[in-house]
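Is this the right way to post structure tokens for a design question? Let me know if I should format differently. Anyway, here goes:
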């Protein structure tokens, strides 16, 4: 059975806001202000996202923050709590990244309005950039929102974080190299008020370039003239290191350059051999070439006791597009689940969802229902199946798609589900599409702008507000203008 996502039920205000659903904003604005603020702060200060690198929440929470006139005291206490300085870098990104991004959007709104409403948010970001553990995130927010006069004074405090030792200079070079936006570093390097700072950054930049040149000279990858055996050995050698170096993808690309017809027997042997990484690289290469013998090898490897081997087999299968592979996928997807490895059946169904035709609708629908029943509305395999239900216009999938939409904790999956519902559910325009106008994901708001029924008074007003919002993405605003533009039948 599936594991609970760890967030509040979807029927509660907190659960709606944690998911980033449009109904979360609508319910928060209708709820008592104290209750709405409590739920908002819980979300901002305890990031609910499954993957903060691909899911949006910051603009969603910043908009609600403005609607509620929430103030910044709670964020300030959170950022400068004593535990902040005890966090490792990865922990700090999870602990304060969302709050810093919300501050960034609040600063942008203040700047765009021509008033000083964003100045408190800017001051808080500047202060955290000089004293907080997650200072690089704060600096990146400032780099795209603050002016030169606000950024220049931060240089001495930021550079003081790095001791003038070889290790400190190396850390400074890495920080400057990894900055999402290099603008502050350029300002500091050109600041005439701090010539010593400029000289230090110049030396760091030269050292960084020299290090890059040395790494290129010391490259340990495959060389021209390597044989198939040497490429496979290189992949296996990386796998056996501690910690392992994952070279399967690189080795498969190398094999495409060095392997000819005469090496096919050697590759087939490696693809069923005992060496994990060599086997994975050979499977990947043969699958990319749509080799007629690779499907039997994939079926065998998918049931291997080694998770690494089984995973490599399934990822190789997922890359195949040919008619022979699709025909075999249909056979696998139709087989009872207890006669084949579960992963093989699931991957076969995902292939049909992505590349199959109308004749595969029943198999995709069955896999969608089975995955939700066994693994819940947040299963990784749902992404392809949801897309497939929309691509194949499987009308019978609408009820399970509605369930996924309501319950998933992933705003990215919810957005995909909204697109699928637009293609399968006639009630989408007058139903979920309306709340999607307030959704946290740009792509979901864009779908809503294209499909939301304008018979609801809230829709036209929301479209107008999105069209005028300086923080809204271009794709959403383009769709909004298309709906607001007068024309036949509008």
């Amino acid at each position: 059975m599936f594991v609970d996502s760890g967030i509040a039920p979807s029927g509660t205000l907190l659960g709606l806001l944690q998911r980033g659903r449009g109904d979360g904003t609508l319910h928060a604005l209708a709820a008592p202000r104290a209750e709405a603020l409590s739920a908002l702060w819980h979300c901002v200060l305890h990031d609910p996202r499954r993957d903060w690198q691909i899911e949006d929440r910051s603009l969603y929470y910043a908009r609600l923050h403005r609607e509620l006139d929430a103030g910044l005291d709670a964020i300030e206490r959170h950022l400068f709590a004593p535990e902040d300085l005890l966090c490792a870098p990865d922990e700090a990104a999870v602990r304060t990244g969302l709050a810093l991004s919300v501050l960034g959007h609040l600063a942008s709104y203040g700047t765009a309005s021509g008033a000083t409403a964003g100045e408190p948010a800017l001051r808080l970001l500047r202060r955290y950039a000089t004293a907080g553990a997650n200072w690089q995130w704060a600096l990146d927010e400032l780099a795209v929102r603050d002016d030169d006069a606000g950024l220049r004074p931060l240089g001495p405090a930021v550079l003081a974080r790095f001791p003038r030792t070889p290790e400190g200079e190396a850390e400074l070079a890495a920080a400057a190299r990894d900055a999402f936006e290099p603008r502050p570093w350029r300002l500091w390097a050109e600041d005439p008020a701090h010539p010593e700072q400029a000289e230090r950054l110049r030396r760091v930049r030269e050292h960084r370039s020299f290090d890059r040149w040395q790494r290129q000279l010391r490259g340990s990858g495959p060389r021209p003239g390597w044989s198939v055996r040497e490429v496979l050995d290189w992949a296996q050698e990386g796998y056996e290191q501690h910690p392992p170096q994952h070279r399967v993808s690189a080795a498969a690309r190398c094999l495409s350059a060095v392997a000819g017809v005469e090496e096919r027997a050697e590759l087939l042997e490696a693809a069923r051999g005992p060496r994990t990484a060599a086997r994975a690289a050979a499977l990947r290469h043969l699958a990319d070439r749509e080799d007629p013998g690779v499907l039997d090898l994939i079926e065998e490897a998918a049931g291997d006791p080694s998770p690494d081997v089984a995973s490599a087999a399934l990822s190789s299968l997922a890359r195949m597009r040919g008619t022979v592979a699709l025909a075999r996928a249909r056979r696998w997807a139709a087989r009872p689940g207890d006669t084949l490895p579960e992963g093989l059946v699931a991957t076969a169904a995902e292939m049909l969802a992505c590349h199959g035709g109308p004749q595969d609708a029943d198999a995709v629908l069955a896999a969608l229902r089975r995955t939700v029943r066994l693994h819940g509305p947040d299963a990784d395999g749902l992404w392809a199946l949801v897309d497939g239900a929309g691509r194949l216009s499987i009308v019978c999938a609408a009820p399970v798609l509605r369930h996924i939409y309501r319950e998933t904790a992933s705003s990215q999956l919810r957005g995909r589900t909204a697109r699928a519902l637009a293609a399968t559910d006639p009630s989408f325009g007058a139903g979920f599409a309306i709340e999607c106008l307030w959704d946290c994901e740009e792509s979901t708001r864009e779908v809503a702008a294209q499909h939301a029924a304008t018979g609801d008074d809230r829709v036209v007003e929301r479209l107008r507000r999105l069209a005028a919002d300086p923080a809204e993405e271009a794709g959403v605003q383009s769709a909004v203008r298309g709906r607001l533009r007068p024309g036949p039948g509008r």
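Format looks fine. Someone answered above. Worth noting: The radius of gyration is 27 Å. The mean pLDDT is 91.
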